[in-house]
Design goal:
Order of helices and strands: HHHHH
């Protein structure tokens, strides 16, 4: 799944749903830093995407950034 999402992004597709999927996939794969990058882009594209803010906070916390995680959850 991760590979197909990366291919879509490489082809120029960029939207909040794709970025959320990439963020979740990277978080599930144990890469919270890369997950946070995609989730940050997701909330930039759709600031009202509450599930993305929640997952961004988790990714940041898992990446040892508790202050940034707290801000994402607020």
């Amino acid at each position: 799944m991760l590979e197909s999402l990366e291919k879509m992004l490489a082809k120029g597709v960029d939207n909040s749903l794709l970025r959320f999927g990439l963020g979740k996939a990277y978080l599930d794969a144990g890469n919270p830093a890369l997950a946070a990058e995609h989730l940050q882009r997701c909330v930039e594209l759709d600031p009202k995407y509450s599930a993305a803010w929640k997952l961004l906070g988790k990714a940041l916390l898992d990446d040892a950034q508790p202050g940034a995680a707290r801000k994402a959850w607020e």
